[in-house]
Amino acid sequence: MILADENIDRSIITAIRGIGLEVYSIAESASGIEDFEVIEMSRNPPRIILTEDKDFGEWVFAHHVKDVSVLFLRYDFKDTAQITTIVLNLLQTRLSDLSGKFTTITISKIRIRSLPQ
User: Fold this and answer.
1) Under a CB-based contact definition with an 8 Å cutoff, are residues 87 and 74 in contact?
2) In whole angstroms, what is the distance from residue 73 CA to residue 44 CA?
3) Which domain holds residue 17?
4) Number of folded domains in the chain?
5) Mind listing the pLDDT tens digit for each residue in 4-57?
6) CA gap 105, 74 in Å, rounded
């Protein structure tokens, strides 16, 4: 299951739902909550946080937040269709590899980093 932060473009959420994955959208259901609340929501049941907010990297790497999985998108709005295709391909081919990882996705690269336990 994916937990889409409120900054995720609706078209990306719709596309992920279109391939049959469940997406809980913060913008649709819990707009305005703090990042730490998003992290807590991602734990039970376990969900991958999909975000464009670099603060999640700080939570994970500087504050050593554990038991999270993050997909961090970095792209220009004009590249939304292209980043959507990349995200869909990744979710369809490597979903099981993303648990407990911090994954950065750009137009040109995907970087999957294991998180300390």
Assistant:
1) no
2) 23
3) 2-114
4) 1
5) 999 999 999 999 999 999 999 999 999 899 999 999 999 999 999 999 999 999
6) 6
